[in-house]
Design goal:
By secondary structure, the chain is of the alpha/beta class. It folds into two domains: 104-360, Type I PLP-dependent aspartate aminotransferase-like (Major domain) (Aspartate Aminotransferase, domain 2, 3-Layer(aba) Sandwich), CATH 3.40.640; 369-492, Aspartate Aminotransferase, domain 1, CATH 3.90.1150.10. 37% of the residues lie in helices and 13% in strands. The chain has 16 helices and 14 strands. Strands 3-9-8-7-6-4-5 form a seven-stranded mixed β-sheet, sandwiched between helices. A three-stranded antiparallel β-sheet has the order 12-14-13, covered by helices on one side. A two-stranded antiparallel sheet has the order 1-2. A hairpin with a 2-residue loop joins β1 and β2 (13-21). α11 (348-384) crosses α14. The two termini are 27 Å apart. The relative contact order is 0.12.
């Protein structure tokens, strides 16, 4: 990791004083240095603004901002950008969260002025191009899922769940079935599923998985009742296994008058090969950062479109986008709509990135997403299976879960292995999820990684297993080569240092 040699000048002599990690922007500060000065008129305006602020609200002293030149700022931020791991710098096998490569052409096109300078209050006839992108993206997603009602408004997967459940509620209310308030959720589900249900005023009913890591059909039957609104199911599930009884599950749910919500987070494993509507899904969200490549939105500034069956479409967020054969327009006349869930049209740039990715790949390319995602995961699983325990069989979809119980018995837990992998320059896999696997390490290589990268990662994981068996302290002391080495996690949580000492 980068270190800086600090040069000191004493008595006219230059000496190497100490070796420190790179200086912070506050350490670079030199009184009086500026990187930018306001033109005289702006300085006047700034003073007028200052004077307009009542004295009691004005600062008593100058803000302790670093005084630096432009080059200091560039070096500071460039340096910071190298102190973290990202898909553009290294392999990032975060299971379930799917950190896959975002082609740069997505960024270039999303950044075109015609896309990012559109004003939300512009008349529709001046943004026909953008509306066409929205219309066509929705159409493609409708075809890929078999669910033709599409809203591009939700800003993340979790937001898509929330929106679709509101759509479902409005649908049941319109049928006089507002009493349906129970959402069945398997124990392998992502935490956002029960959270979304609760946020919508629904009740989460948890069911256990069977010994094969799939939905326990007998338990499902026992939980179904007149109040069941839907089942939220992830397929493939978060163990990386295809729910092979999905037809039976859907039949049971539909026979009870309820609906199937597909958590489409793992759609990259089946996209272009299976349409969720064909195995019974009535509504779903798509995490576009996982399937069609956008930066992961961290629950907000991403995109999580929802796709629903025809009978749910009238309840989708408004406005809908209409095409009359000649031009595109907003249809605000949606009396049954749940209203808006996001300002204006959602995250335009992410819809644009999705569209570019889809058009770049075309139909055949989209099918290959699933093939390579599954092939890569199975290859990596086969390389690791001898050294780590595999709880649910040696075949998987796009991701898999191994368990570090063997290593835990030697003294190194899943968390230690995750930290040790940092010393080899890789981002760790997801740890301790799904909750039903003890010492879980959940690995998703994604379709974009090469065979050589998978083999390098496997070599590091095998070496860690060897070290653990030989002397686990070689693993539990990790990481040792990162800017911040092994830390006291309890202190980091209880007494966090939230500011740079010199900046106070
Ligand atoms: C299975 C599953 N469902 C839902 C979500 C929530 O998606 P988002 O982070 O886009 O809100 C995730 C997140 O990675 C997930 O893995």
């Amino acid at each position: 990791m980068s270190q800086r040699i600090k040069i000191a000048q004493k008595d006219g002599k230059v000496s190497v004083e100490e070796r420190t990690s790179a200086a912070s922007i506050f350490e670079r500060s030199v009184p009086g240095r500026t990187g930018f000065s306001l033109p005289a008129e702006s300085a006047d305006t700034a003073k007028k603004v200052d004077d307009a602020i009542p004295a009691r609200f004005r600062r008593k002293s100058r803000a302790a901002l670093p005084e630096v030149g432009e080059l200091d700022v560039v070096r500071h931020f460039t340096h910071l950008s190298t102190r973290t791991l990202g898909v553009d710098t290294t392999f990032y096998p975060l299971g379930s969260c799917t950190m896959k490569y975002n082609p740069k052409i997505n960024e270039d096109i999303a950044a075109l002025p015609g896309n990012c300078h559109v004003h939300p209050h512009q008349p529709a006839d001046t943004m026909q191009g953008l509306l066409k992108v929205y219309h066509d993206t929705a159409e493609i997603l409708g075809k890929l899922t078999g669910l033709p009602g599409v809203s591009l408004q939700p800003a993340a997967g979790a937001h898509g769940e929330f929106t679709a459940l509101l759509v479902m509620k409005a649908y049941f209310e319109s049928r006089g079935e507002a009493h349906r308030n129970e959402v069945i959720i398997p124990d392998t589900a992502h935490g956002t599923n029960p959270a979304s249900a609760l946020r919508c005023g629904l009740e989460a009913v948890n069911i256990q998985s069977d010994s094969r890591g799939r939905v326990n059909i007998e338990e499902l039957k026992s939980r179904l009742g007149p109040n069941t609104a839907c089942m939220m199911i992830t397929n493939p599930n978060t163990l990386g296994l295809f729910e092979d009884q999905i037809h039976e599950v859907a039949e049971l749910i539909h026979a009870a008058g309820a609906l199937i919500y597909l958590d489409g987070a793992n759609f990259n494993a089946i996209v272009g090969r299976v349409r969720p509507a064909d195995f019974g899904a009535d509504m779903m969200h798509i995490n576009v950062h996982k399937t069609f490549s956008i930066p992961h939105g961290g629950g907000g500034p991403g995109a999580g479109p929802i796709c629903v069956r025809d009978f749910l479409a009238p309840f989708l967020p408004a406005p809908h986008i209409k095409f009359d054969g000649t031009s595109y327009s907003f249809d605000h006349n949606c009396p049954q709509s749940i209203g808006k869930v996001r300002s204006y049209f959602g995250n335009v740039n992410n819809v644009m990135r999705t569209y570019v990715y889809l058009r770049q790949l075309g139909e055949e390319g989209v099918r290959q997403i699933a093939s390579y995602a599954v092939l890569n995961a199975n290859y990596l699983l086969s390389l690791l299976a001898g050294a780590y325990d595999v709880p649910f069989g040696r075949r998987c979809m796009h991701e898999f879960v191994i368990n570090a119980t063997r290593q835990k018995n030697q003294g190194a837990r899943a968390m230690d292995i995750a930290k040790k992998i940092l010393d080899y320059g890789f981002h760790p896999p997801t740890t301790y999820f799904p909750l039903i696997v003890p010492e879980a390490l959940m690995i998703e290589p994604t379709e974009t990684e090469s065979k050589e990268t998978l083999e390098l990662f496997a070599a590091a994981m095998l070496e860690i297993a060897r070290l653990s068996a030989e002397d686990s302290s070689q693993v539990t002391a990790a990481p040792q080569s990162t800017p911040v080495t092994r830390m006291d996690e309890l202190a980091a949580a209880r007494q966090p240092v939230l500011s740079w000492p010199d900046s106070k």
